[in-house]
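ugh ok so i messed up the first submission bc i forgot one of the chains. this is the corrected input, ALL of the components this time, i swear. 737 residues overall. if the numbers dont match what u have on ur side tell me asap before i send this to the collaborators (the ones from the other lab, u know who)
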Amino acid sequence: MSLNIALLGNPNTGKTSIFNKLTGLSQKVGNYPGITVEKKKGICKLSNTTKAHIIDLPGTYSLNASSIDESVVIELLLNKNNKDYPNVAVVVADVENLKRNLLLFTQVKDLGIPTMLLINMSDQMKRKGITIDIPMLEAKLNTRIALVSIRENKGLDLLKELLINYRELSVKPTIKFEDIDQHYFDHLKNTFPDQQLYKLWLLITQDINFAKIERKKIIDSIDFKTQSERNLKKLQQKETVKRYQFINNILKNTLVIDKESATDFRSKLDRILIHKFWGYVIFFLILMTIFQSIFDWSSIPQDFIDSTFASLSEQLKIRLPEGVFTSLLSEGIIPGLGGIIIFIPQIAFLFLFISILEETGYMSRVVFLMDRGLRRFGLNGKSVIPLISGTACAIPAVMATRNIENWKERLITILVTPFTTCSARLPVYAILIALVIPQGSFLGLNYQGLMLMFLYLVGFGMALISAWILSKTLNIKSKSYFVVEMPNYKLPLLRNIGITVWEKTKTFITEAGKIILAISILLWILASNGPGKDFSEAEQIVKSNHKQLNGDALSNKINSHKLEHSYIGILGKSIEPLISPLGYDWKIGIALISSFAAREVFIGTLATIYSVESNAEETIKNRMASEVRADGKPLFDLASGISLMFFYAFAMQCMSTLAIVKKETNSWKWPMIQLVGMTLLAYFVAFLTYQILS
Amino acid sequence: MEWVQSLLVFLAALTAVAYLFSKWKPKSKNKKGDSCGPDCGCH
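and heres the new structure output, hopefully the right one now
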């Protein structure tokens, strides 16, 4: 006797190991006609009288094809004329993902093909705390099951025995199609009484060519009226829901997963990392380590970059012929660019840590961990992904909300995501922290690193509070489901990490760099020109008012006078009454306006303004540190510094984010609400902070 | 040489304005379904 056996299963269920074990060296590798998907066929002697031709089909999650791999599986199962059409189908399931794997099993069985279930990796059951009542599962699924461990060479004899007796397998469908849509499926059955119902249904819903399955007959039929694509998709979704209801009911009584008794490495680690208490503690400690390292490790390369740009400006001034373009280069472009390049080390370290967390599989645990807490704030579990990716940039994070089905929950996520600390805020925080937070440490943790971490938590906290308020005011009634697949832990691949760090840093520098370069040029022009005699006759005015001054002091005073009466000075002065209660002067006001384009422009703007004002070639940090108020006190002190940090933590200083919010919501209403709401909040918090601390 | 430097500054300013304008000029209206699903509340 000779029979055809099809091996099917989800990807990574060990299907090919089973195939190799059964066929040994009797294998033949080919391709499916017309496509490059690999086809493996082999021969297995099941008994002295029975020989089996085994075909190893590509891994597929279901029979609803979305890729070529999946479509070749369906093409074989629907085509009885194919010489490889199976007498029996073996669906290989992984013991850890039985529920997901059973979807494919029910679909294959409903095609009327004798189908048995092979539960693989049975050696993992004890370590993972899994118990399966095999006889009950067999009865409920109306099939036979082989529990197999290739590693321990167990269960293969039973598998062969079941295959020899494949005729005993039931071909009764697992679900009733009438339950999906009685009218539609009755009509289908009456129109094609000779056809197998599920085969017909798959034919209708798959967009692939099965010439020999009488598709022509369906199209030509006068009686048969198919439905719109939209309705067919709805029916398909209903079918999947019915199947999962069937599977859930069965597994409720036959499968027990006791996480507490699991002893494998992954389970042990998961028990700690996603623990209700320790999970959060560990996550908090990891965050603290990251922010400490960002400050500690970045300081040396940052000092080097800062001094390099300062001397580059000086060298340009000396070596190039005197003139306006030389001034633009040395006072506008170079200091402006220096203001962004200096943050390469910190950005690179941030992404280094993020990519390590992603590569090791820990980030998925964080997503799972955060899901529990987020629901209390009216957010969807899927909101975690935008909120976490918002630490890099709000733009892709806002786009990542597209997988949230519920519109109101999606809208809330879009509105609160810009509160999470994006990489553009990092340069602003970094320089302000370095200026106003002392370098000392507490219990080995430096204050500057702790402040940076605090700002990240403040951003995340504000996102949650805003979400909670919005969920109450927007009256959200329904909630969506949340599914996250936890990958196995693995050692990170250095190459992958290197590529991520390089790509993210490059994107940040090139995107921000171009904007900063353009704004630096315009700022320099506006700062180097002004209307009226106050600007054009600045030298005579200063000399007559400050006769005691000479040398550098006189020169700096003239430059200050000119800047104050330049176009940018007039603009800054005009908004000074509005921002002085926050502790800012008109120069910071200019930086606030220009950084509306992008937050990181703030530092570049100040660098350009101070460079125009002073002849001395100093580092950006030193220039900011030497700024004083009218009463001689430092401009950047604890009160104004923290006030500024809070302003940037809450303000919507990003035109690109507004543009993407407009695109995603298809209306200016929401980005405008976001802009006004966040700016008012930022102003209020910054005002309170300055008034309390000063 | 002064006029060369002034010309370079003028060109730099022109390029900067053009770049910023191209970066934030209003984009053409999205096609339906381009960026949001049928249940997004915006159709």
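quick check: The interface with chain A takes residues 1-2, 4-6, 8-9, 12-13, 15-17, 19-20, 23-24, 27, 30, 35-37, 39-43 of chain B (CB under 8 Å). that seems consistent at least. Residues 2-24 of chain B form the longest helix (23 residues).
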